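Researcher: Go.
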Amino acid sequence: MAPRASWKGYLKLSLVSCPVRLYPATTTSERISFNQLHKKTHNRINMKPVDPELGLVERADLVKGYEYEDKQYIIIDEADLEAVRIESNHTMNIEAFVDEDEVDVIYQDAPYYMAPDGAMAEETFAVLREAMRKSGKLAIARLVLSSRERVVTIGARENGMFVCTLRNPNEVRGTAEYFGNIPAGKPDPEMLQLAEALIKQKETTFDPKNYEDRYEIALMTMIREKLKGHKPIIAQAGSRNAAIGRSADQAEGNHLRSEEL
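Model: Structure:
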């Protein structure tokens, strides 16, 4: 099945526009999750809204509220939200270009892949992609996703482009509170030389396959064993990491993956 686009519109640079599609670059569908059950019946628990004075209430009676002081709320209704909702013109408008290393990774949020929408768009798409690749630049653009305007970066990636939404500056904490009291003194030269040697010793190329989530693999191993009727091994304090490592090794050896369940 072909992947489903999460956004369709036009990539626009001055008078040049190109029909494009966005696809989420990441997924959580393979992540293990649990449901809450009653311990005796094993029925799944349904969470229902409860008012501390009235008890169980209907969802139709719920409204949105913004807490502006402790336990003090202002009611926000659909008309209020509609008044500030940004209508999408289905255009990703490029406003500027910056060096690839200029955007701090701490601002990067959700990644997307971008592809041309149809054969007629492929040539224009390729021109924009290769121009950015050759210049080493990222485009800064705006678009509307889920009724919210987002600032994004756009860059060349293989035969397509890579789009990443950016966090707002007020969502990123400053460093002074965390690093301000750390001394900036010069480290001991011999210790520094030793640290540099250790770094050199462990230099390699990054391959994400070498850094799988060992806890997730251990969970899958435990679930498989329980499905077979085997009692899982309980890791003792101090040996937890070793137990997780053994489970991960076992899971890799058996090629266990969540889709096998």
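Model: Confidence is low (pLDDT under 50) at residues 254-261.
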